[in-house]
Design brief:
Shape: globular
Order of helices and strands: EHEHHEEHEHEHEHHEHH
Structural class: alpha/beta
Helix content: 25-40%
Number of helices: 10
Strand order of the largest sheet: 3-4-2-5-1-6-7-8
Oligomer: single chain
Distance between the termini: 26 Å
Length: 246
């Protein structure tokens, strides 16, 4: 896979941002230098998840408007030295056009092994902006009908945008809950409906959620850490099995 990855979902609440951060951390643990870009204008949250909220002076809109250089809008994680963040604007009026954002990403990409773009949920202009410069898309869904419908729509839109490399991440999976829903015969049916090749199955993990909300990005002690490590290795092109099979 190429080194600019957009993480998207058709529906809010799937844990898309957690996947973006978890993948970024796992890639850093593989000695990769990673830039995480928050594209959720007006609803940014990655600065909280990386514990750099108090340091943010400039965001991606400042970088393209000339208020600062692109490098000045990039902030280093306190917990992981090779993980960097470019924050989204607080104000939705500062939303960036896809062409301008692509130019910004192209200017930055040479300094990093990977650029991970956290797209806003849905199919609006923010999603199009986030997806435009990407080489690969990870579509995040839960194993539930409403979420899966959103994933199907996201895949369709990505194909319209010319994206060829699209993979599915099923997040917050819990076997008991999945069985109780009685919506699908098995996970294979979920993957078949999505029309997208599965790259990771991430278990429901309350400790992971708590860790992200408290700005702690080391994944060494949480049950999902091995899954993110496996996802990062798959992104790297290794032929490794799913770390969690439900």
């Amino acid at each position: 896979m190429n080194n600019i990855i957009v993480v998207a979902s058709g529906k809010g609440g799937t844990g898309k941002s957690t996947v973006a951060v978890g993948l970024s951390v796992a890639l850093v643990q593989l000695n990769k230098r990673v830039l995480l870009i928050d594209c959720d204008c007006g609803m940014r949250g990655l600065d909280l998840m990386l514990d750099v909220e108090s340091e943010i002076l400039f965001d991606c809109s400042d970088a393209v408007c000339g208020n600062c250089t692109p490098e000045e809008a990039v902030y280093r994680s306190k917990n992981l030295g090779n993980l960097y963040l470019m924050a989204a604007p607080f104000d939705t009026d500062n939303e960036i056009s896809p062409s301008v954002f692509s130019q910004l990403v192209d200017e930055l990409r040479g300094g990093y092994d990977y650029v991970i773009i956290d797209s806003p949920a849905g199919l609006g202009s923010g999603f199009v902006c986030a997806a435009t410069p990407a080489d690969t898309a990870l579509v995040v869904t839960n194993a539930e009908p409403v979420s899966l419908r959103g994933a199907v729509k996201v895949r369709r839109k990505l194909l319209e945008l010319g994206m060829e490399s699209i993979r599915l991440v099923i997040n917050r999976f819990e076997r008991a809950h999945f069985s109780q829903l009685e919506c699908y015969e098995d996970l294979d049916e979920v993957v078949d409906i999505s029309g997208t090749q599965l790259i990771a199955l991430i278990p429901r993990d309350t400790r992971l959620s708590a860790m992200m909300q408290n700005g702690l990005t080391g994944l060494g002690w949480c049950p999902a850490s091995n899954v993110f490590n496996c996802l990062a290795r798959r992104i790297e092109g290794e032929n490794v099995p799913l770390a969690f099979k439900g």
